[in-house]
Amino acid sequence: MTYQVKLPVFEGPMDLLLHLIKENELDIYNIPIALITQQYLDYLDMAGELDLELTSEFLVMACTLLAIKARMLLPKPVIETPEEEEIDPRVELVEKLLEYKEYKERANIFRELEERQSQHFWREVDDAKLLKEFRPANPVGSLSMDDLMLVFSRVLKNVEKKLDFVSVSREEITIQDKIESILTLLRETPKGRGISFYKLLTAPPISKEEIIVTFLALLELIKLGKIYVKQNSMFDDIYIFMIQTMPTERSENLENATIS
Known about the structure:
Layout: H1 13-23, H2 33-49, H3 56-73, H4 91-117, H5 127-133, H6 145-162, H7 175-188, E1 195-196, H8 197-202, H9 208-224, E2 227-230, E3 239-242, H10 250-256
Antiparallel strand pairs: 1-3, 2-3
Helix pairs in contact: 1-4, 2-3, 7-9
């Protein structure tokens, strides 16, 4: 009758050391290095007899254990002062074992979460159907970015025709300043009335730089949901309105707004 010996496979030398400590119910902070070293070498011998592949890490750890064992067998030097207390040669090994133990425990937690998650099955989502039923809100109503760019290009062309000279000095205008200016203008406009997009970009005196900053400020205000724009029909002037109601009431606001 033949016996089959099966050795457990360990992920590395640290995994093997933790197994030996747990199996012998040892204190990890006070490892009997002679016992652990002997059992570690016995495992390597049995693995060699069974032709198991061992990485170089196992051999390096064996050398480390033998070195620690040799240092602990050497006679301890005489300590003259408390400050010269000898460092335990097992300290570094214990720190590495504790660190590996923590990583292994965390890995087991993630493995359990993965197994638990694998038992859940999710219903497939039809993105195209959802987009049809819940269309994203358009802050500019029926207008598209092409409509705004078309008016913007027309304004730039008209300004370029009027410019007979180039000014060397220029006034620095920030988008934030222009945002405040537009909001102030809208607040002064009677409630329910808008301001002309074309007039806003052509009000003299205005430079090409200021037109660009004004256009960027309008886009930022639309993005922030503070204003909306409206156009009665194609190629008509675009009017700007301040949003003074809750988002759920915006549709009513768009229908009731008048153009001045």
